[in-house]
């Protein structure tokens, strides 16, 4: 690891069981956000953290949280149960599962119980698990509120509250749910808010939630990591699939994460790759949780060569040392480019981000370059040059028309950014479910409380209580 801090974990004030778990995870040096967040959280104050996935933020809040809970054993309720003392809210099921896995990894030698909770599965198994006692609950908002509504969950003893990826939560329309959760949490608690971006909405939420927070910002937004080599291949509109196939075969790429704008585009691309003997699967909101989990697991193991994802579906995917990210279609929201390519070149290992840009997408590329403040090198792959007669055409997304050909300079650029990829869907089916393709744009990622499995509460360390 090449973190510029040479500090060791030992000097951060963490107890031995946690240091041991950190050693066993193979970490030698804390990342910049860990150096700053761990002491801040240990001191008991509120924290506002500006950090993207990949910075080590999870350990930055989980380690000190575990320590604070270990330091102050739980008081059991009248029925002898351990109350929920820490609540971590995440926007997606995938992220919830990953964060809870981190809680178990770092809390391996701590005697604390954790549980992950999200929608789409039966309530009863979750109720049973809650009854057995949970110190740390990692949840997506919808199912949490379902439980609260049914009085199967007591949040009145929460001492530490974490809002992870708060910007994505707001993007996904979770603000009303967050407000509902805040309303049922105790006034007196330690609150931590993590967000990759600081919009006015995030600031307003922070004002409401946090009390004299310590501000910690590591990698500034919109800065693409130096470790990522970026390249754009201008290509004919109809040649993208063949170019991708060519690049994968010619360079013998494995573990390629490919982004498309819409889920049907993802499916069509997978069919094409399969036809050319490249193992590929798509993950997006229409896939079952089982299919997504399997695709991700196979991809991580290196058994699946290509994973095709939409922006929202990819959110929260944590793959160490992902070598290649391909923008099969350029995102029309420039910030999504930063999020997409942030999947590679992580934790000190180099990565490559390739963009396939057709004439309709030149405007998107320019917007991205303006955002990241540098030009992306262009390189035409022989045999795949854009035909000289090709003129920009509008890109149609549902009812929306975007891109170079959509009027002068691209119709979308004047208004608020639109997010695409997965159709909006109601949360947890609580409001009747259903899939509404068009406005209001409330994008629905795979990880929202929809369908999926939950895990039993993991007992961390020896269950002595
Ligand atoms: P996060 O930003 O929390 O999603 O973490 C990104 C990745 O970095 C995860 O896969 C962690 O396992 C890894 N990681 C976290 N902290 C460290 C560290 N101090 N040294 C090396 N890897 C780390």
Structure description:
By secondary structure, the chain is of the alpha/beta class. The protein folds into 2 domains: 9-217, P-loop containing nucleotide triphosphate hydrolases (Rossmann fold), CATH 3.40.50; 223-465, 3-Layer(aba) Sandwich (Rossmann fold). Helix content is 33%, strand content 15%. It is built from 15 helices and 16 strands. It has helices spanning 16-24, 32-42, 57-71, 93-106, 123-131, 141-149, 166-171, 175-184, 200-209, 240-251, 263-275, 289-301, 311-314, 334-341, 362-372, and strands spanning 47-50, 86-89, 113-117, 136-139, 160-163, 190-195, 214-217, 228-234, 256-259, 280-283, 306-309, 324-327, 351-357, 395-397, 400-402, 458-459. The strands form 3 sheets. Strands 7-1-6-5-2-4-3-16 form an 8-stranded mixed sheet, with helices on both faces. A 6-stranded parallel sheet has the order 8-13-12-9-11-10, with helices on both faces. A two-stranded antiparallel sheet has the order 14-15. Strand 3 (113-117), helix 5 (123-131) and strand 4 form a beta-alpha-beta unit. Helix 3 crosses helix 4 and helix 14 packs across helix 15 (362-372). The longest helix has 15 residues, at 57-71. The two termini are 37 Å apart. Mean pLDDT is 81; it is low at 1-5 and 407-465. Adenosine monophosphate binds at residues 1, 27, 29-31, 34, 53-59, 318, 320, 347.
Q: For the record, give the distance between the C-alpha atoms at the N and C termini, rounded to a whole number.
A: 37 Å
CATH topology of the largest domain: Rossmann fold
Bound molecules: adenosine monophosphate
**Quick check: average pLDDT?**
81
